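[retry 2/3] General secretory system II protein E domain-containing protein: previous attempt timed out, resubmitting with same input.
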Amino acid sequence: MTTRSFVPSLDDDFSWLVSSGAVTEEQLADAERRAAEEHTTTATILLNDEVIREEHVARARAAAWGTTCIENLRTERIDPALSRQRAWREYIRRGWLPVRRLDDGSILVATFVRPTDELRAEVVTELGTSDVTFAATARWGFRQAVLRTFADTVADDAANSLGRSDPLHSAQTTMSMPQKIGFGIALVALVVLLFLWPIPVLVWVIGAMSVAFLLATAFKFFISLRGSDLVERIDAEKVAALTDEDLPVYTVLVPVFREANIVGQLLGNLGRLDYPKHKLEVLILVEEEDDETQQAILDTDPPHNFHTIVIPKGQPQTKPRACNVGLEVATGEYLVIYDAEDRPDPDQLKKAVVAFQDGGEELVVVQAALNYFNDSENVLTRMFTLEYGFWFDYMLSGLDASRLPLPLGGTSNHFRVDGLKRLGGWDPYNVTEDADLGIRAAALGWRVGVIDSVTLEEANTSIPNFIRQRSRWIKGYMQTSLVHARNPMVLIREAGLIPFLAFALLIAGTPLTFLGVIPSYLATIVSVWIRDAPLTELIPYWVMWTMLFNFLIGNVLMVYVNMMGPFKRGQFHLVPWALLNPVYWILHSIAAYKALWQLITRPHYWEKTHHGLTTQKGGAADDDVDRTAAYVSAP
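[retry 2/3] General secretory system II protein E domain-containing protein: success.
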């Protein structure tokens, strides 16, 4: 039988709510009028006005439909022999679930969809019996009950669906067998060559590292210049012209893990979004074992359109695995990911809607810019802010303008839900699932864009926390490079040769650059200040000086682009700090070697970044300034 998605009834009789005293006649009439005007349900209006709770809706529907009622399906005993006849995704889509056999022999079926003749025929056909008893239940309680009932399957699908359907683009296997053989042969060949001709081979290796460093930094420099004069604004008149009736349902995913300390900040920040509540669903994705965060969410009593989705235990325990679960229960046409501490511009969702309307069906995701609210807390936060200014205001704009593959940032990615599902969702085994998804989209012929909206985050204030975060990012770039190097012709065929070379310089070149920083620094010290060192007797001076030249030029270029970083946002006080970029890169190099070690020993381990460490306020800032208005001309 053809699978159909549920369609919430728009004409349910909620007179029970009046007769029971839950609402007044005036409240019900007003909700029905608004529901008709805004093309939504009466229940949604009443729930978002916080006049009633979901159990009231279940009771009202039971009274209107003439069925029994299950107020909280999550606590019901569900017979696996009946429920396991279908995949959990099917129940989510169809809106009904067999619960158990009753004493009279009939099968109790929970649903939040009006049990029409069509639905009854579907259920009878699926269960193979006409003896069916329907029970009305609450919509989100239904979804959570399905996740609980199928916990083991949900965990497995969230982790392994991409690996099963598209193993070529999954990082579940770090290196394919041909890659292992190729790397093994290359390593053996290098050892043999070093043994036979140590000096010439060493010269070539050092020279190759030097050239790779210069190429990677020069590429970033020229792409940043390409993006320096681009401020691709979303037409403000188009944003203002959007009406609540025109807007689609939008899902916000917020994966959290051990972040009970910033739950209140999360609710406050997302509560500032300028989007109609009845078309905005916020799904807070919490790991099953994280009791503290779950309790913190309950204690804050979030609005009705905020829902806690408990992610079943499973491995790898990563953010993308949680997001894959959220994707399956999301009802929005569009979807965005925010981190727990994020503070997006209030109109960011509306700007994304306009971008998708203007961008055509091939535009599958748009990236908003990221910046920091604690940019001046210490030296590290200043350097982080400079880097983000360069990356999001120049680098990504330049890549977008050049139609090159665009690695997404870890948050504020806005997706077409249907396109995201066709891409296979996120790769739970890739620890930079965002960058991977942007490249995968390009490899499959989709387009990734940027929008002129800003999300403020918390910059790392401590070096150990920075190393944890940055080592994960660099390891993810290594994983993404290995994944797309398995069959580079796929990316070349879909995106083109130039985009493939750009991918190689940016995604593969970034880890190689950082791995080369410390050796290059040491070689520089040796060649300039320790002229009698043994190394200078082995390697010709022209090689050492060429490497030094490339290294210095590369650093000058990166200092310059980091100086550009704060200009578009008027953060001129940060410009002098860009001179410390060579020192900042030492931290990146340390993180790169940690990333390489973890790629070998713990490729899928997710290094958690601790949030809520800043002493500065700003996650729930007390002003509503449009930060995109701060753009000024770049140098």
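[retry 2/3] General secretory system II protein E domain-containing protein: Residues 15-149 form a domain with the GMP Synthetase; Chain A, domain 3 fold (CATH 3.30.300.160).
[retry 2/3] clearing retry counter.
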